[in-house]
Amino acid sequence: MDVSRFSVERRGNESRVELLVSGELDAHTAPQLEAHLQPGDSSPAIVLDLTDVEFIDSSGLGVIVAAHNSPDVGSLKVRGLSDRVRKVFEYAGLHEHLDIE
User: How far is CA 77 from CA 1, 2, 26, 28, 45, in A?
Assistant: First the structure.
């Protein structure tokens, strides 16, 4: 897999961080997203924009669920799901547990 097709852009401040994710979110790239989901010393609200994600597998879902369940993350909102990615969230039952726009 061409890892260069995956990227995360971080925007925000101490209280709110927006992560714009693009490419494929799978076993090879999930650790990169996980590193960006570490809030540090604060507990920010995180908005995870998946508008440009073409593919996601269980590894990517696992990172998102771990961030959602982390006591270090104030809140996690997911937005911009394509129909294909939304179906993966629905098959996993995550649409009932995550804050999805």
Answer: 28, 28, 20, 23, 8
Low-confidence residues of the chain, pLDDT below 50? 1-4
Q: Are 78 and 100 in contact (CB under 8 A)?
A: yes
Q: What is the pLDDT of residue 11?
A: 77
Task: Please report the pLDDT score of residue 45 as a whole number.
Answer: 87
Of 26, 34, 29, 35, which Cα lies nearest the Cα of 7?
29
Please give the Cα distance from 42 to 98 (Å, whole number): 21
Q: Count the alpha carbons within 13 Å of 21 in the hemisphere toward its beta carbon.
A: 33
pLDDT at 4: 42
Q: Which two tokens stand for residue 28?
A: 């090879």
- Residue closest to 70 by CA, chosen among 89, 42, 30, 29: 42
